[in-house]
């Protein structure tokens, strides 16, 4: 079974973002970029499936600018066999990404597609579900456990009240939650080897997908800053402040 | 054109979040949108429909009561929404795990974008939503004919339950051969729901182990609080995943939030910084949590917690 895993290049999760002075967007110049953390978990899960003999091949895919090939090389250093780069400098929203990934599914015919549940830049949490709908496939979102059994996959999902388990027919779409696995670090020899693994470059036109969106960004603002308050010296003072100043007790 | 709200429910009860989503729908209605319908989909949901019919501002409750919609699996629920969406200008759901699971399917099949987690209505087509873990607020305008959105329930005050909308059944039944419900393991608790509680007390890695989380119980009992956890505490196995407050967990905005042994990573702050009053208890006086806390207490939580419990 072939496993397709989608990854996204995003701002490194440790970086504190700044809004541009003209409020047109977030300022990403000279900011450290990395693979979206949920996508790292997706790659790890795909590689583990291969190590268990469930997956025969792991193909990583991304949609984005030329620099996003760094994240594909990372995915291959972690164990993906080859990569597909749908190259575009346009800002591509979830719906267009899902359409492009649907094009990749049509060509590659994977048995399982794994994506991160959300990217930490737009915080959309949409692409996997949109891809599933467009491809006419079932979905196991927010997965904390994935168990492939023959023609089916059992997915344990993290839901608001606890856990839900569903069984899906394959092919299926899975999106990862934080506790699915703990991603490994790439080893230096694997990073060197990854440079030689095949990487196909495509364009949105190759899949007949227009990337324009009907949603426009009006402005981006920094949120209202919370002012740090006071330090209290004792539990008594805390209780007194909560009762008499904040009036929340 | 009117507005459709997908009701959230579990355990045979209408989820409190639905009243907040209806409040967002009312703001859209005031900006020029039409009537508000609520869709209740599930199996054996008549009591839920009755509760939804009482929500202020709702014109009509549509009920799809069929075994195929049990557990609100994404595939049949998405297909139902696609069938019903014609005639609506906006379809809204709570940004709960159910809403997040199904709404993108509706949007994709209608070939429109989805706006996730909106926190303000600026007009009939313009909305605000947090990006980058809430470190920026984007104002976005959608020119799609159908606007599909999830709503951050804590950003809108719940409507009251003094209405009496009509209830109509929806006969649409869709096929689902792709997904099967296996089981659910829900955390059982007598405490209030984390997302709706007036007081939340959360523990972080500083709690040291899962056993020590019991130190929060007595305080939570006295305050009628829900208990939360930071991602670090959940990852370390101290607390269940459904207790996680943060960018990728629950978003809370209680009147009082007490952070115990939580350093205050960006991802955690994203889930609680809209709380009215924040208290931080941490032994590291440099911890970033103090930068957002109204009241900070530097001290050993193993001494502070029992004392706090005894003085409440």
Automatic annotation (TrEMBL), chain A:
Q: Which UniProt keywords apply?
A: Electron transport, Transport
Q: What family does this chain come from, according to its entry?
A: Belongs to the ETF beta-subunit/FixA family.
Q: Which cofactor does it need?
A: AMP
Name recorded for this polypeptide: Electron transfer flavoprotein subunit beta
Note the PROSITE patterns from the entry. ETF_BETA
Keyword Metal-binding listed? The answer is: no
Query: What is the stated purpose of this protein?
Result: The electron transfer flavoprotein serves as a specific electron acceptor for other dehydrogenases. It transfers the electrons to the main respiratory chain via ETF-ubiquinone oxidoreductase (ETF dehydrogenase).
Alphabetical list of CDD domains matching this protein: ETF_beta
State one molecular function term (GO): electron transfer activity
InterPro entries xref list: ET-Flavoprotein_bsu_CS, ETF_a/b_N, ETF_b, ETF_beta_N, Rossmann-like_a/b/a_fold
What sequence ranges are listed for the domain Electron transfer flavoprotein alpha/beta-subunit N-terminal?
23-211
Q: What biological-process GO terms show up in the record?
A: carboxylic acid catabolic process
Q: Which domain of life is it from?
A: Bacteria
Per the UniProt entry, what species is this protein from, by scientific name? Onishia taeanensis
* Pfam families in alphabetical order: ETF
**Subunit record text:** Heterodimer of an alpha and a beta subunit.
UniProtKB/TrEMBL annotation, chain B:
What is an example of a Pfam family matching this protein?
A: ETF_alpha
MF (Gene Ontology): electron transfer activity; flavin adenine dinucleotide binding
Positions with a binding annotation for FAD:
205, 230-231, 244-248, 261-268, 282
Q: Among the record's GO biological process terms, what is one? A: fatty acid beta-oxidation using acyl-CoA dehydrogenase
Entry-linked CDD domains: ETF_alpha (cd01715)
The cross-references to Gene3D superfamilies, in alphabetical order and at most eight, read: HUPs (3.40.50.620), TPP-binding domain (3.40.50.1220)
The domain of life for this entry's organism is: Bacteria
The record's annotation in PROSITE patterns points to:
ETF_ALPHA
Its required cofactor(s), as named, are: FAD
The Electron transfer flavoprotein alpha/beta-subunit N-terminal domain covers which part of the protein? 3-185
**Comment on bound cofactor:** Binds 1 FAD per dimer.
Q: Which UniProt keywords apply?
A: Electron transport, FAD, Flavoprotein, Transport
Per its UniProt record, what InterPro entries does this chain match? DHS-like_NAD/FAD-binding_dom (IPR029035), ETF_a/b_N (IPR014730), ETF_a/FixB (IPR001308), ETF_alpha_N (IPR033947), ETF_asu_C (IPR014731), ETF_asu_C_CS (IPR018206), Rossmann-like_a/b/a_fold (IPR014729)
Q: What does this protein do?
A: The electron transfer flavoprotein serves as a specific electron acceptor for other dehydrogenases. It transfers the electrons to the main respiratory chain via ETF-ubiquinone oxidoreductase (ETF dehydrogenase).
Q: Which family does it belong to?
A: Belongs to the ETF alpha-subunit/FixB family.
What name is this protein filed under?
Electron transfer flavoprotein subunit alpha
Organism of this sequence: Onishia taeanensis
């Amino acid at each position: 079974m072939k496993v397709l895993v989608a990854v996204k290049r995003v701002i490194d999760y440790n970086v504190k973002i700044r809004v541009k002075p003209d409020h047109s967007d977030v300022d990403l110049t000279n900011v450290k970029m990395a693979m979206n953390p949920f996508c790292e978990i997706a790659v790890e899960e795909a590689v583990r499936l291969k190590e268990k003999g469930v997956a025969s091949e792991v193909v990583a895919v991304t949609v984005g600018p030329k620099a996003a090939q760094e994240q594909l090389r990372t995915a291959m250093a972690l164990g993906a066999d080859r990569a597909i780069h749908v190259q575009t400098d346009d800002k591509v929203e979830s719906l267009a990404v899902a359409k492009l990934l649907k094009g990749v599914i049509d060509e590659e015919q994977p048995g399982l597609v794994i994506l991160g549940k959300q990217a930490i830049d737009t915080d959309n949490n949409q692409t996997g579900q949109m891809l599933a709908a467009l491809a006419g496939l079932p979905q196991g979102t927010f997965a904390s456990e994935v168990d492939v059994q023959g023609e089916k996959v059992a997915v344990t999902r993290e839901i608001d009240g606890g856990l839900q388990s569903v069984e899906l027919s394959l092919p299926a779409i899975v999106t990862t939650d934080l506790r699915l696995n703990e991603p490994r670090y790439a080893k230096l020899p694997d990073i060197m080897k990854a440079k030689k693994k095949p990487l196909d470059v495509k364009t949105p036109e190759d899949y007949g997908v227009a990337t324009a969106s009907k949603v426009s960004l009006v402005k981006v603002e920094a949120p209202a800053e919370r002012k740090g308050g006071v330090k209290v010296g004792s539990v008594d003072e805390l209780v007194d402040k909560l009762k008499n100043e904040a009036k929340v007790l | 054109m009117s507005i459709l709200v997908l009701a959230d429910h579990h355990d045979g009860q209408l989820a409190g979040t639905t009243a907040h989503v209806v409040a967002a729908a009312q703001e859209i209605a005031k900006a020029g949108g039409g009537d508000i319908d609520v869709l209740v989909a599930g199996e054996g949901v008549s009591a839920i429909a009755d509760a939804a019919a009482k929500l202020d501002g709702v014109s009509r409750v549509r009920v799809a009561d069929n075994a195929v919609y049990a557990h609100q699996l994404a595939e049949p629920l998405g297909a139902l929404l696609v069938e019903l969406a014609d005639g609506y200008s906006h379809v809204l759901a709570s940004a709960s795990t159910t809403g997040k699971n199904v709404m993108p399917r509706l949007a994709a099949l209608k070939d429109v974008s989805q706006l996730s987690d909106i926190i303000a209505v600026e007009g009939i087509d313009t909305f605000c939503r947090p990006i980058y873990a809430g470190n920026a607020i984007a104002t976005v305008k959608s020119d799609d004919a159908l606007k599909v959105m999830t709503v951050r329930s804590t950003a809108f005050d719940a409507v009251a339950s003094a209405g009496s909308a009509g209830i109509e059944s929806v006969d649409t039944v869709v096929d689902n051969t792709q997904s099967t419900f296996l089981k659910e393991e829900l955390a059982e608790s007598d405490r209030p729901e984390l997302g709706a509680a007036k007081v939340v007390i959360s523990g972080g890695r500083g709690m040291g182990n899962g056993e020590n989380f019991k130190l929060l119980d007595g305080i939570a009992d006295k305050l009628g609080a829900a208990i939360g956890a930071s991602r670090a505490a959940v990852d370390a196995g101290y607390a269940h995943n459904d207790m996680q407050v943060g960018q990728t967990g629950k978003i809370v905005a209680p009147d009082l939030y007490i952070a115990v042994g939580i350093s205050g990573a960006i991802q955690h702050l994203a889930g609680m910084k809209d709380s009215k009053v924040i208290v931080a208890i941490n032994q590291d006086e440099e911890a970033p949590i103090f930068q957002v806390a109204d009241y900070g207490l530097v001290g050993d939580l193993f001494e502070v917690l029992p004392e706090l419990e005894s003085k409440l």
